[in-house]
Structures are given as structure tokens and as C-alpha cells.
What we know:
The protein is of the alpha+beta class.
Amino acid sequence: MTTLHFYYNDVCPFAYRVRLALAEKAIPHEAQVIDLQNIPDWYADISPTGKVPRLKYGDDVVWESTVINEFLEDAFPDPPLLPRNPVARAQARIWIEYCNSTFQPNCCGLVLELDEGKHEAIRAALLDSLATIEKALSETPGPYWQGDRISLVDLTYYPFFEHMPALTEYRGFELPGSLPGIHHWLEAMQARPSVQANRRPPAFYIEAYKPYVEGRMGK
Ligand SMILES: N[C@@H](CCC(=O)N[C@@H](CS)C(=O)NCC(=O)O)C(=O)O
């Protein structure tokens, strides 16, 4: 059987998406932590940009968290993390795209942006994207994004919500209590064994983001 090697870092929300997919599908793999402040030379063969997450499957390398998760779905179809219905699959991809293009940049941007003058606009954009997500979640029967089965959509968004204590600590941003759809979904996610096995406490994220907010790391 082809060995699957997974390269990640605990702080990386993109790598967390993949950790969740590997756990949900119970895929045997060898995981290796990459220290992003001291990237080992040998890692350049796997990731010329030094970024995580990366997957090595035999001699082939797959990267970009959302592509990696689709690769895992194709290579290890059981249990499925995408619906079979083509329209529902397209909708899943639309929401994954929304996360990558809008929600994630706002969410990470609020804590990583060092120019305070930009924070108000990012905060407003983040609240806007949360309202869009709330509408979507309040319109599904739940408890997950696409109903009663967890999907790649849930795994794509969840890491950024777990990181929010860093936004609270450094930017005074709290997830509004007036978003019941999001809060119910979060409860369902936090009950998943995949999340329970991988989650980190708020203090972990607060500490992990310190070098970024203090300007000691690049974006
Ligand atoms: N779009 C990429 C983003 C990956 C990414 O930005 N990873 C960050 C950590 S969260 C990284 O490896 N940074 C190290 C660097 O840029 O040197 C994905 O979804 O996989």
C-alpha cells in the first residue's frame, strides 16, 4: 500500500482542515510537524515555498488544503465527505470557495494586519461574511452545513472559528452571540471525535499568534 506522508504545523488553519479530513476518514498516514520558524532544508524538495500543508503520496506531492482534501475524497472515498448529488457537490464547492476568497482572508486579516488603520474595514467585512454564513447555516436542516452529514465544507471553515480567541485577545473581536446558526453548528463540530482529537485550547492560539501580532513573523 502507498504510504501517505502529511506535513503540517499545529498553528496552521489550512493544515487543520487536512488533519480533520484524515481523522474523519481514518486514513493511515505518517505525520510530520514542520517548524515554520526554522524550515528544514530537506523540506524544499516537498514544498519549494516552505508552506504547509503538503501531502506526499508515493512519489507525488499534493498541496493547497482544499485540493488536498478533494484528493483525499477521491483516493479514499469512504466515508464520503462530499454529497453524491452533483448540485449539492457544486454547492459544497461554492461554499469552500467563499471561505477561501472571503471569510478566511477577513478572519486571518483582522489578526495578521499590523496597520491598525485597516482594522475597522476588515472587522466590518468579517461581520458581513459571518452574516452570510449565518444565513446559509440557518437555512440548512443541520447540524452540518449540508444537513445531517459532515462534509468538506464544515472542515474548511471550522479551523478559523477555533482560532478566534486570538482575534478576541489581540483585536477585541468576539463572535457575536446573535448568530444562532453558527453557534449550533460549532457545537456539533466540537462534538466530533475528529475535532476532539485535534483541537487546541484558546491559550494555544493566543500564544501562537503573538509573534505575528508583534510583527516578528511575515504574514
Ligand atoms: N492556500 C494555502 C495556504 C497555506 C499557508 O499559507 N500555510 C502557511 C501556514 S498557515 C505557511 O506554510 N506559511 C509558511 C511560509 O509562508 O513560509 C492552503 O490552503 O494550503
